[in-house]
Amino acid sequence: MLEPISINIASLNLPALLPMAILVIGALALLVADLVVKGLNRSFFTMITVLFIILDLGAVIGYNGPVRGFFDVLLVDGIAIIAQVIILVASAFFVPLSLSHRHFREFEMAEFYALFMFMIVGFQCMVVSDNLILIFIGLETASLSLYTLIAMHNRMKAFEAAIKYFTMGALAAGFYTLSALIFYAMTGSVEIYEIERVLVERQFEPLLGVLAATVFMLGALGFKLSLVPSHTWTPDVYEGSSAPLAGYMSVVPKIAGFVVAMRLFEMLVLSGVTWVEDILYALVVLTMTLANITALVQEDVKRMLAFSSISHAGSMMAAIMIGTTQANTALFLYWTLFMFTNLGAFTMLWIVRHRKNLWDERYQHPFSKFSGMIKIMPMTATIMGVFMFALAGMPPFSVFWGKLYLLSAAINSEYIFLALIIVLNSAIAVYYYMKLVVYMFLKEPTTDDATLFTTNASTPLKVIIGFAAMVTIFSILFVEPLLNVITKYVSSSGF
Amino acid sequence: MEHILSLLVFFPAMAALLGFMVNKESIRAYAIGVSAIEFFLSIILWIGFDASNAGYQFVEYFALIPSYGMSYYLGVDGISLFLVILTTFTTMIALIALNIEKDIKNLILSVLFLEMAMVGVFVILDIIWFYAFWELSLVPMLYIIGAWGSTRRVYAAIKFFLYTFAGSILMLVGILYMAHLYYQATGVWSFALPDWYMMQIPFTTQLWLFGAFFLAFAVKVPMFPFHTWLPYAHGQAPTIGSIILAAVLLKMGSYGFVRFSLPLFPDASVYFLMPVAIVAIIMVIYAAMVAYAQEDMKQVIAYSSISHMGIVVLGTFAMNAEGITGSIFLMLSHGIVSGALFMLVGMIYDRRHTKLMKDFGGLASVMPGFATIYGIMLMASVGLPLTIGFVGEFLSLAGFYRISWVMTMLAGTGIILGAVYMLVLYKRSFFGAVVHEENKTLKDLNAKELTALIPLVALVVILGIYPKPVLSTIDMSVQKMLVLMEQKAVEQSTKDLIINANTVGGTK
Fold first, then answer.
1. Per the domain annotation, does B399 fall within a domain?
2. CA–CA dist A415, A421 (Å, integer)
3. Which one of A103, A177, B342, B352 is most buried, counting C-beta atoms within 10 A?
4. pLDDT of residue A1
5. Is residue B138 part of a domain?
6. pTM over 0.80, yes/no
7. Cα separation, B252 vs B274, whole angstroms
8. Phi, psi of B58 (to 5 degrees)
9. How confident is the model at residue B116 (pLDDT cuts 50, 70, 90)?
10. Contact between A394 and B153 using a beta-carbon 8 Å cutoff
11. A51 to chain B, minimum CA–CA distance in Å?
12. Taking the alpha carbons of B482, B487, B493, B499 in that order, is the dihedral positive or negative?
């Protein structure tokens, strides 16, 4: 006869599950509501989703239970909390982008919002765990939802993007399971801290096994974080997705990936097995440099922004490689500030979206579309210019402070050469960001018809743009409080 | 007077923001009004400035990111005071002389934002903010050159931007490394310049850091061989862009040498003295020769700027009070003179739509007023005694004489060459018979142009005859800086050189 399993319900620490549970309930409730009441408007779905996200945010911030929970699978430490806050805030700003002036079919469907919430749950699971299996479940939940969300845009390019993302993602998932399998085979555990303990005990023998597991894991996470060489999907997928979703993909899935990478690779880098650091170093340099050089020759703004986000992700991997508290703080600071600026830039593309490709047969947003914009829409052009210079790391705009702190972290840990590579990349990057500025400010307009650029503009979108612009311009005022909060959380969780 | 520096920095920016609401027809009057108020503020600053205090005055301090040592820290001393006044003055004069009609509102708002960045560079004492203002000054200039320039404007604008941006990016690493050193030495983060002044840095580290900062400043000055962006930028820029570029933006580089390179890295500055001086002399002679070969008036003045900036750099690296004071005075005089010359070229270009010397000739008989003012400015540029150009050039060279008389002689030939190309320019454009039919009907300067030019002429003469009030104020702060350099130098040879350079004919 089987032994009855008796577990004290208190030891499960169910409140740790609460944030994810809220969104799951929200998503299910939304589906039910859609079944019961016909003809619900997208504004209803949007606001309900935002409300659930806010509830979730409250649950995340308000959580003060033990770090471990639910059979020790959950790990609610400092970085998990910051990462969740970033994920939720970015999501809360993303959803209202559905309220554009023109109607898109996907935003009329309740399924879109339900899937969106499931996706957030997936990302949250990735960051609040150090159990490779739960991370995998989170990763797959989020990815499968995301594939569908992309395809729901219902354009030729969107299907292509979704299929491309799906096939590449399936490969990455395979890599992930292989890596987890090898770790399990070597250490008998799927928990990162346990793996670390066993490996340290055995001094990282067998080295070949660790190498294989690391390489597979890099392949898997490298796909999510769009690191070279598994970055090739990024521009195509961004191009195929709607602009807000592309902007979302460049921020949220990556922060979830960074947290997993942080938990896993910093353990490996600190192990002193030098080749782990060498591989990461090469990866960081290649990702930043190749992406920047490829971005130089792009003819479409969205693709340019895709490559630029790859390059930004590269410098974040540099922070993970450096691995000090300051570097990890820099990562979150950078990403928080980058989130607003990038959100602004992609929202801008969303606003100027036109039903037809009037400027170029191949691309939605060729540079020539923005030609002479300062004369047609001075305000829009100025704000877009600010976003571009901010992304390029011009002081005193948002991303500069993150970059500054990251460089400082690199220099303080004696990675002078790495710091030099990062700044040289900034010098390359400024060229392609400036290309858009040059088109907007220095070229003659191709059309005088401002309405061509505003067919998708609506009040919610303008509010979001205004907010993003304010944060970008006055970011200096938020750096100190952000730095304090992030440093507190990061150092309290031992990174 | 408590917050006058903040006011000086942010008044133009505020005015620019509010300027979005001002109607296009009134924007010129608005701009002149704003820049006049700004100039007036800077004069108040001078009046309130205590000429017997060598340290920073009107200091404002507010800890912005205390956990990372970043602050909002303003202060002005004798070195920066007159550069601030030069900035506000030039901006005002350039706006008065402005006669562009196309998209004038955008142009004026950019100029006002630019003024904020320029004043900010000169009065800020927090290095991160310095870097921020330094970079921010590029953006409006990019727009000014790129949107209102001549045919190849976009290329020139991008070249200007990329050169200066790429040059200064290494400075950022240098800044962060300095902060790192400061943190290691004291256990606190600080980006405040006066804090950094207190720090002694090991010799080899100084060499690297000097290099990182040097590149940024050298591109801006511009020093040979990083000077190639300048003739392009000047050639394509509209008049107002050229005036501000020559009068103020170039001075940011040479100001950087005085403010950062010398006092922060005294040993490295002395170590690199000869290489820098050689490059400076190449600038002086080579640019003068290139200037001689130009057909385009504006290019002549652009290359003469490079030549004069060579003497500025030479004076700065003389490591003594005469040389450095002279080089700062030369920055001021070059700002006034080259600004005026670019303005004059702009005026003739507006009339004839050409800047080539061969299209002129005999202008003196058609436009006597224009020819007179042009002549005065030309003489000041050459460095004729009793004009403003002479004082700075003489002091810089006299200062460097203590270091090496041979090199001073070589640099002196630059002045002779300067006289050659400038006088040739004058001869070909203004003397002789009026060859071209179009030139016979040219109108002399009108009231608006005279309003802009006469103050410049007055300054050229007054400061040429009696520069003392300006010089003594600069000199005091320079001497304080030299004492600091001597004290914090780690190598004995550096101390010897500084003392030696300052003993004869100077005060130590």
1. yes
2. 10
3. B342
4. 62
5. no
6. yes
7. 22
8. 55, 35
9. very high
10. no
11. 33
12. positive
